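Extended Data, panel c. Modelled sequence:
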Amino acid sequence: GGLSIYLGRHEAAIDYNQRALGLLDDNAVTLPSVLSNIAASEIELGRLESARARLEQAIAIGERRGQPSISSIGNLGYILRELGNFEQALQLFRRQLELEQLAHNPGTQAIAWKNIGETLTRLDQREEAVDAFDTALGLYRSSDIKPKRLELYPVMIDNLAVLGQHRRAFELMQEYKALNDEMVSAESAERIVALETGLELERRERQLALLERDRLQADAELGALRADRAREHGLRSLLLAGLVATTLVLVLLWRSVRIRGRANRLLADKNAEIDQAHQVLATLNRTLERRSLEDELTGLHNRRFMRCLLDRRSADGEAEVASNGVACYLLLMIDLDRFKQINDLFGHAVGD
């Protein structure tokens, strides 16, 4: 509710404060302030009678608790003055001044004196109003509340003009103009500073936007570079794997060629050994065959040779008979009796 008052949303402020009021009991500490907030919004909306009732209720609660609400008293005085109840308004403003003096706050005392002065002018007690306005002006000067002092000058000048104190009114008009120029200059300076600050902020925001864009672009380029590096790394890995595979195949082929060459050499050696063995075996076979046909001691053909010879001749004769119809036979037999005894008695040389 208080925030809505600050934002000028008085209908919303009344609604929120009404909700808060429904949650409070009669002993709630914040009850007077909630009532005062509702009244403040109603005053801004021109609902003076409703605001008056709220403020009277808040003031009564504060007085009963021994904690009078100064703001409620001042606001009620303003409402009564606007409604034409100047005497009652003046009493409330003087009550407000007493409470502000007890609080020892010059700024709020000046507000009370200004309210008293304005009410006195409504009662046509303008000489007394001059004193009230002068007191308020002194307090505003001592507390250096320039905006409130600017609000005070017009009512003071109007009152002096009615009283015919034109010289004093002119002096106050000069003060008013000087202070107004100062305030306008200060406000203009503040606006210039605000504009410069806004421009600087906008410039910095543009710089930040450019930096952010550059950062995003750099991030994108870095991402692309990383992707390229990843692809290059993958390609290098594939090439390296291919090179390793090719090298391995070449090594295997080289080893296979070596093994095959060595196997061929071993096979050739074995074949040579086998050929040599065959030759040796053939020689041995011929030697065995020759020895089987000869006598070991004399070297002469033996009986086996004769049988083989007869078999061959017999076969040859049969072939000749088959071809020519003529049969030729030859038989030679030599029988040497006791030949072994001759060898045993006279020796092999004599036997041969």
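The chain has a mean pLDDT of 82. This feature is highlighted in the accompanying rendering.
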